[in-house]
TrEMBL record:
It comes from Ancylobacter polymorphus. The keyword Oxidoreductase applies. This is Flavin reductase (DIM6/NTAB) family NADH-FMN oxidoreductase RutF. It comes from the Bacteria. Pfam families: Flavin_Reduct. The keyword Signal does not apply. Residues 26-173 form the Flavin reductase like domain. Keywords: Oxidoreductase.
Length: 174
């Protein structure tokens, strides 16, 4: 059966999609908010990320997309391990600090929120909804980003309460 024609504008196949159009469409994707952390020779580092996805449960594997322009990007490759902290609704200030707001860098960011050392010796956010403790099994550069593939070696389940999400360039609670 024929699909009905969409009334909205669309881009012709075969032409490059303009980055602004792509970003606008992606801003309509509801995404959970995480802070990805590591601890390497350079000390602790972390950044806020919505580009997190499950790859498999056998064995438990996930991926994170890390912009190579982020100052701590090399630290994530070198350390070979990272933690994915899924944020609760009341942890928006942590998301902002690790998203670069306020100009906090490196270790300074850990002054926002309560942090402790987790299963693999990685910085874990106290009160996070869940924490995935990962060993880096593959890092592939695609366009502007490093796609970090992590084998999940431990999981910490926090209280199952309201979560922080990102939609339309703003935070919301789900
Ligand atoms: C809600 C939100 C989601 C973000 N998602 C990502 C992401 O998935 N991947 C990424 O590389 N950067 C993401 N960022 C941007 C990085 O957190 C930001 O560029 C980084 O903290 C800058 O670090 P630097 O100042 O040390 O370079 C996101 C920021 C916010 C506020």
């Amino acid at each position: 059966m024929d699909q009905p024609k969409a009334p909205e504008a669309h881009h012709d196949a075969g032409h490059a999609v303009e980055a602004g159009l792509y970003r606008e469409a992606m801003s309509r994707l509801v995404a959970a908010v995480h802070v990805i952390t590591t601890h390497g020779a350079e000390g602790r580092a972390g950044f806020t990320a919505t580009a997190v996805a499950s790859v498999s449960d056998s064995p438990p594997t996930l991926l994170v997309c890390l912009n190579r322009r982020i100052r701590s990007a090399p630290a994530f490759r070198h350390a070979g391990r990272f933690a994915v902290n899924m944020l609760a609704a009341e942890q928006q200030a942590v998301a902002e600090a690790f998203g670069g707001r306020g100009g906090l860098e490196g270790e300074q960011r850990f002054g926002v929120g309560q942090w402790h050392e987790g299963a693999l010796g990685l910085p874990c956010l106290t009160g996070a909804v869940a924490v995935f403790h990962c060993r880096l099994v593959e890092a592939r550069t695609i366009a502007t980003h490093d796609v970090l593939v992590g084998r999940v070696e431990a999981v910490t389940l926090g209280p199952d309460r309201a979560k922080l999400a990102y939609l339309g360039r703003g935070f919301l609670t789900v």
